[in-house]
Amino acid sequence: MKVITMILLTIFLGKGCSQETKNDLANASIEYIANTRGFYQKIIIQNQEVSISNNRNEEGKGVTTKISDADWKELVNAFETVQLDSLSTYKDPTQKRFYDGAPMAKIKIAYKEKEYESLNFDHGFPPVEIEKLVTKIVSFGKENNDN
After folding, report:
1. Cα distances (angstroms) measured from residue 113 to each of 28, 35, 42, 90, 110
2. Residue 112 to residue 120: CA distance in whole angstroms
3. How far does Cα 92 stand from its chain's mean position?
4. Looking at residue 22, what is its pLDDT?
5. Hey, how many other C-beta atoms are within 10 angstroms of the C-beta on 4?
6. What is d(CA 144, CA 133) in angstroms, rounded to the nearest whole number?
7. Three-state helix/strand/coil letters over the chain
8. Neighbours of 49 (CB within 10 A)
9. 7, 28, 45, 145: which could join 111 in a potential S-S bond, CB 3.0 to 4.6 Å?
10. Between the CA atoms of 139, 141, 77 and 48, what dihedral angle is there, to the nearest 10 degrees?
């Protein structure tokens, strides 16, 4: 009887812990900013909405649109893989921003009353650990520019 109890307890605790380790995008706010002398883009994602501003002097969030369910699911999957405590340690793969070869970018995530911020990296060349997330976020800005 003890063996069966231990097996069930192990399975129950194992599943409970794995669910807690995933980040929940519904309770987060993501801000992505890329800029250089002639370029500015601020993308804010919160509550299944994306706000995009291409003017650094603009007050407020900019143009806000609802994120489709398919895009939201893809964004949630990418967000779940991010190790928030390590975000500030991820290294940039390129340094094009040092000679105006790419805008400088940064991502900030507010999650469970705590803020996480990356180091600066080149817009279009994020650290490998957050590449999926950043690529999806940037795609919303590209869609906005096409309109």
Report:
1. 9, 27, 22, 22, 7
2. 23
3. 16
4. 67
5. 8
6. 18
7. CHHHHHHHHHHHHHHHHHHHCCCCHHHEEEEEEEEECCEEEEEEEECCEEEEECCCCCCCCCEEEECCHHHHHHHHHHHHCCCHHHHHHCCCCCCHHHHCCCCEEEEEEEECCEEEECCCEECCECCHHHHHHHHHHHHHHHHHHHC
8. 13
9. 28
10. -140
pLDDT digits (tens, 9 = 90+) for 87-122: 999 999 999 999 989 999 999 999 999 999 999 999
Q: Which among 146, 144, 117 has a CA at the least distance from the CA of 51?
A: 144
Query: What was the pLDDT predicted at 20?
Result: 45
Using the structure block, give the residue that is written with the tokens 């291409």. 54
Can you read off the two tokens belonging to residue 68? 């489709």
State the pLDDT at residue 23. 77
Distance between CA 65 and CA 47 in Å, rounded? 11
| Distance in angstroms (rounded) separating the CA atoms of residues 4 and 25 | 36
Average pLDDT over residues 59-63: 78
Q: How far is CA 28 from the centre of its chain?
A: 9
Q: Are 88 and 119 in contact (CB under 8 A)?
A: yes
Instruction: Using alpha carbons, list the distances in angstroms from residue 67 to 38, 50, 104.
Output: 28, 6, 25
